[in-house]
Amino acid sequence: MKRKWAGVIVIVMAVLMLVSTAVPAMAQSEQDVTTSSQPRYKVGLAIVAPRWAPVGQEVSMRVFERLNQNPVEGAGVWALTRNEAEALKQEMTSISETSDSANQEPDYESLVNVHGTLLGRTDGNGRLRYAFTEEGDYVLVTAKRGYFPGFAHIAIKALPDALAIEAPRWSPVGQEVTMTVFKRGTQDPINDAGVWALTRDEAEALKQEVTSIREASDNTAEVDYESLVSVHGFFLGTTHGNGELKYTFTEEGGYLLVAVKKGYIPGYAPIAIKNVPEALAIEAPMWAPTGEQVTMTVFQKRTLEPVKDAGVWALTRDQAEVLKQELTSIREASENTAEVDYESLVSVHGFFLGTTHGNGELKYTFTEEGGYLLVAVKKGYIPGFTFISIRAPQNDEAPRTNAVPETTETLDSQESTD
């Protein structure tokens, strides 16, 4: 009986030892399976690029980890057409549905490389620069071993040629204006380009129509801009071989100049046409001794033509400061400074020296020392100013030169800008 129980005990102990060794082995095997079922790639990639770019212009693309925004170095970037992208999508879907979790991750780089064109690999900052040479809509795909690919769309377009027009910012009524039309970017002059002038209201209406056309049309260069602009503005003429057009405006106003030629985006430039009053200038020695005759010459500042019958006054420094303040107030309140009665204004503050002759000259002998502001005045003109210093006669006289001191320049510039 004892031998029987001894045999049973031996069998039980053997079974227990077998179980104790088998259970850890099974646990280890299950852990291996669980570990191998985890995806081998880290996280997904993301790629950022412009929505569109011109043909031939370098495009900057940036690749980073989607989860934490860290830049990814050495990531490849491929460009795929829509058909190629669709084929890639189907293959990736098929791999995802049929892959065994215990298998190694798919080789996405090789897969993308079969369908697309490699543009390059990112630098240490996750950036890649590339210039596309052909138009088209592309899907950008970035891939690197250990990551799930990232995707972005970009449209590459050939920009139509555009015109530009150069003209003065303003010009007097009745004076010929030269406008130059050229190709934007190359500065090449454009022959046979039509030029129109539009008022502010007409320009606003044109702007709205052009905006609507650009939103609806794929090729803005093929739009009939000539018919569109001719409805709103008035025709000035067409450019010659040097791209120039000359035109004389006969009415004041603010205009938008529009240059148009088939196959080009129009060019625009503003211009203001206004009646600018003539301004006087007065020339005299920088200094002169008392008792010596001084010759002063009054002329038109723009044309340098001598002005007859212009009155000339002399003002002390204090009188000149008061005049300056009054002129500033007048300039701020009046739209036409040429119509101001400057003669009455100046006569209140200074003393009259005389009027100029046919050659624009006036001669006068100062008897008292001092610094004086000379003011030349004539109806319909902006006054002219210069400064003269009258001193006691000296034996070692320095050369006398005509000059305009700082105070005179200030007065002169204030009036001539009106």
In whole angstroms, the N-to-C terminal distance is 135 Å
Radius of gyration (Å): 43 Å
Largest sheet descriptor: 5 strands, mixed
Which structural class matches the secondary elements? alpha+beta
For the record, the CATH class of the largest domain is Mainly Beta
Percent range of helical residues: 25-40%
Number of helices: 8
Percent strand equals 25-35%
CATH superfamily name of the largest domain? Immunoglobulins
Total discrete domains: 3
Mean pLDDT: 82
Under CATH, the topology of the largest domain can be stated as Immunoglobulin-like
Q: If classified by CATH, what would the architecture of the largest domain be?
A: Sandwich
Tell me, briefly, the overall form: elongated
What's the number of extended β-strand segments? 24
Instruction: Please mark out the parts with pLDDT under 50 across 5 or more consecutive residues, or reply none.
Output: 1-40, 403-410, 412-418
Structural summary, described in words:
The protein has helices at residues 2-36, 82-98, 108-115, 200-216, 225-232, 317-333, 342-349, 406-416, and strands at 45-48, 52-54, 58-65, 76-80, 117-121, 127-131, 136-143, 150-157, 163-166, 170-172, 176-183, 194-198, 234-238, 244-248, 253-260, 267-274, 280-283, 287-289, 293-300, 311-315, 351-355, 361-365, 370-377, 384-391. The protein has 418 residues and is α+β, with helices and mostly antiparallel strands. It has three domains: 45-157, Sandwich (Immunoglobulin-like), CATH 2.60.40; 163-274, Macroglobulin (MG2) domain (Immunoglobulin-like, Sandwich), CATH 2.60.40; 280-416, Immunoglobulins (Immunoglobulin-like, Sandwich), CATH 2.60.40.10. The strands form six sheets. The chain has a five-stranded mixed β-sheet with strand order 2-8-7-4-5. It is elongated. Residues 1-40, 403-410 and 412-418 have low confidence and may be disordered.
